[in-house]
Amino acid sequence: MPVLAFGAHLLSPAEIPFQPWAKRIYEERGLTQLEPHTRCKPSGGVRQLQTPYGVEIIELPEAKRIFMFDVGGPHTFRTVYTDGRTHPASVPPSFYGHSIGWWEGNDTLVIDTVGYSENFWLDRKGLPSTEALRTVERFTRRLLDTIDYEITIDDPAAYTRPFIAKFELRLEPAIEPYEYICQEANYAEQLMIREGARNEFASDFVP
Questions:
Q1: What is the pLDDT of residues 66-114, one digit of tens each?
Q2: Separation between Cα atoms, residue 140 and residue 116, nearest integer Å
Q3: Mind spelling out the 3-state secondary structure of 144-191?
C-alpha cells in the first residue's frame, strides 16, 4: 500500500516544548539544511513518512510482521513486529529503532518504538532527538484512501514534555514504488539546500 503524506506539517516551533539545547539545534538546522535523509541516510519517526516518494506499507499476517519500505533515497525498510512481543531490555540504537505493533479494532494500527539513534532528523524541519526517544504512532483508516496519522513524541532529554502531532496519509494505489538511486558523495547540493542557506559543501574537502 503506497502512501503519501498530505499536509504533513508538525506543530509550529512555538508549540513544541523544546529543551533549550534542542531549540538551538533546531534553529541551526533550519539555516544549514544539511539533512541526513537527503544524503542517503534512513530516517526514523515522522520523517520516514515525509518523503516525496511516499512509503510502502506491507502487512504479512502469517509472519506477524509489517514492513514499511522507505522508497526514496536509502532503500531501507522498517520492521514492525505484531506477534505480541515486548521491547527487549536493551536495544542497540538504530535509525528505525525497535517497533512493536497491534490493532485496535479493525481500522487502527498502533506502533510503539524505542531504541532510536540520534543520527536522523525527526521531521523535515529538523526536530532533534536523543536515544531516550520513544514514539507511539496511530494509523487510523478513516476512508478507503485516507489514513489519519497521529504520533506521540516522548523524549525527556530533548523536550520538556511529550507532545502529539497529526496529519493525513493518502493511499496511492496506482503508483509503483519509485526506483531512486542515492549514492554516497552525490550531494547535488544545489538541489538539496534551500536558496540563501549556508552551504558547507562548497569546499573541496567534505568531512
A1: 999 887 667 789 999 999 999 999 999 999 999 999 999 989 999 999 9
A2: 24
A3: CCEEEEEEEEECCCCECCCEEEEEEEEECCCCCCCCCCCCCCCCCHHH
Helix intervals (H) in the chain? 20-32, 189-192
Classify burial at 49, counting beta carbons within 10 Å of its beta carbon; exposed 0-12, middle 13-18, buried 19 or more.
Answer: buried
- What is the C-alpha to C-alpha distance for residues 10 and 176, in angstroms, rounded to an integer? 27
The least confident of 8-12, 94-98, 132-136 is: 8-12
Domain boundaries, the chain: 2-192
Q: Which residue has the cell 536558496?
A: 195
**What three-state secondary structure class fits 100?**
strand
CB 153 within 8 A of CB 170: no
Output the pTM of the full model: 0.84
The CA distance from 117 to 133, in Å, is 9
